[in-house]
Specification:
The complex is a heterodimer of chains A (about 220) and B (about 210). By secondary structure, chain A is an alpha+beta fold. Chain A has nine helices and eleven strands. Chain A has one domain: Beta Polymerase, domain 2, CATH 3.30.460. In chain A, the strands form three sheets. Chain A has a seven-stranded mixed β-sheet with strand order 5-6-7-4-2-11-10. A two-stranded antiparallel ribbon of chain A has the order 1-3. In chain A, β6 and β7 form a beta hairpin. Chain A starts with a strand and ends with a helix. With about 210 residues, chain B is mainly α. Helices cover about 50% and strands about 10% of the residues of chain B. In chain B, β2 and β3 form a beta hairpin. Chain B is elongated and about 65 Å long. The chains are: A alpha+beta (about 220), B mainly alpha (about 210). At the A-B interface, α1 and β10 of A face β5 of B. β10 of chain A pairs parallel with β5 of chain B.
Chain lengths: ~220, ~210
Amino acid sequence: MVKVNEQLQLFELIGNELKEKINCYVIGGSAMLFYGAKVDTKDVDLVFLKKRDLEKVKEILEKISFKDKVELVKIFRRYEDGKNRPIMMVGSNGERIDLFFKEIITFEMSNTIVDRVKEIHEFSNLIINVVSPEDIILLKCATEREKDRFDALSLIEKFKIDWDVIIEEAINQTKLESNLFPVFLFDFLYELKENFKADIPKEILDKIRSIGENLMIKKLKKKK
Amino acid sequence: MDIEKVAKELEGLQTVSTIAKKLNVSKRTAVNYAWKLRKNGYLTSNGGGRNIKLYNISSLGFKKKEGYSLYSLINKYSRVKLNTRQDYIIHSKNEPTPEEILIRAVSSDEFRLMLASLELFNKIKNWSELRKFAEEYNIGRNIGALYDVTRKFIRIKRMNERTRKALLKSNGKKFLFYGIKSKSFQDIEKKWRVFIPLNKQDMEIYKEWSK
């Protein structure tokens, strides 16, 4: 498990080793560490918008004794569909860093996510952008781990979630890569509400369900 | 009512009146809630006196963050205060100096940040450090031009001749903000060979703000 201070030290180390400024986005549990919404995380997830930047960080990680874990752990739902698989780097103490390029399996880093970034942290040459709590929830929906449901639940409890942002981004994702994203999102949020009693407004769930249903009907009509 | 729930309900900027309205309580009870929120670390405030007191409430609490927030540092040195939409945190061993903060703010592509930072010319102690940072960020001539504009409207320290000459010879960006030119300071623009993204009216307002 990676704790807040360990994560900061790791970023400082990478930032000091880098020769030029590199921008990346932190998502999932590591982003929650920055918000103080969690005490530790199993892995640090970084998303890059430039392939060159990803390669540079990978090089630095190898230099500080991280090893590329070729075998993919089955964490991501629908990960077989993903064209773009993450690079998993494992450190000597078992800490894991996942490096993504532009998309997180079937979820694309859209411009709207970039605009919603709440905090930017500068570690020498490494610039870390922390995505908004709404986007962390949206990204959590791409996984099938139990603990990700708890993380989403904790975010809903701790933050005043702007549900309109979640609906807008779900629709936005259908225009990009994942054209059935609202269907998966409904599934995820419905489970949170039913099984974990999350405070999600009913009208929001109804709205996402109807968007999802319309998409399914359109898709079925296209197949015919 | 659970104080954590109250903090979540009131997240953002509030006044006593808005707290009272949102919680449907009297103003006196709203003040009590504000006191309780502050005691639990969910609230910070500014203003008061002749101005309305503004409460900034965060449901996560105002924990001490690692690193130095660029906005907090600007607010510390400048009389023009900024509210943060997107915080920029610098992780470094030492707190950035006013010289560094000024250069970072001007080169940040954020108009508000640049405008609020102009007051920092008054906090400069080491002009050669300012020049060093300006050259590092490639905005030497822009800084010189902004200094001349600011000096026309507010009292700021005199820049030494050595730094002035060095800045005139240094590099600069033709436009600081996406093709914005000035109609009021063309003489300064000509002298420094850069375009200034401010007009006389902007600076008059700035002068009022910084009083």
